[in-house]
Specification:
179 residues, globular, 28% helix, alpha+beta
């Protein structure tokens, strides 16, 4: 197990969240459905929220030194369960922001399709196709986005939007192994 918590909770006075994909593993729902765990489903449409709630992405608030947070990170990190977000915005505001990205119009399919932007196997490709305006909008409520590096869980990818350079900055952080 790698010490992802050390990186996620470095800054004080900022909210720490995970976007977890309950379609990846049914255990995710067990962790996020505990009493006291604040979570928001990231589907806007009522039908989607009702019919797909067991296979939906959720925004989950994480807390330093919390048993449920520790269990979620220990079980999920390294298994493509989702990504992590640092933000000064509330869970309600941030979940509204992310619902704009879970369903997009596909010109190829000529219909709305689900977009798994939060999936570690997808996010890097997704961020690379955004233009300057789209990048700025995506990061408008995000201070930092963290994603495990696929097939290299000892590396945590850190994304920030650099306003001066009008681009997304990517950094690789090597995590300490937990003893």
């Amino acid at each position: 197990m790698y010490r992802v918590e050390k990186e996620l909770f470095k800054k004080e006075k900022i909210n720490t969240y995970a976007i977890v994909d309950s379609a990846v593993n049914e255990e995710i729902l067990r962790y996020i459905n505990r009493r006291g765990v604040e979570r928001k489903i990231l589907y806007r449409d009522r039908v989607d929220r009702r019919d797909l709630s067991r296979k939906a992405p959720y925004l989950v608030e994480l807390h330093k030194d919390n048993v449920d947070t520790h269990k979620l990170l220990k079980e999920g990190y390294g298994h493509n369960w989702g990504c992590f977000v640092l933000s000064y915005f509330s869970i309600k505001e941030l979940s509204r922001h992310f619902t704009n990205y879970t369903k997009i119009y596909s010109e190829v399919h000529e219909q709305n399709i689900y977009m798994r932007f939060y999936d570690p196997r997808t996010i890097n490709k997704y961020l690379n196709i955004l233009n300057k305006e789209e990048s700025l909008e995506f990061f408008s409520k995000i201070s930092t986005l963290y994603v495990e590096k696929v097939d290299e869980p000892q590396i945590l990818l850190k994304y920030n939007y650099e306003i001066e350079k009008q681009r997304i900055q990517k950094e690789e952080i090597i995590l300490e192994e937990e003893i």
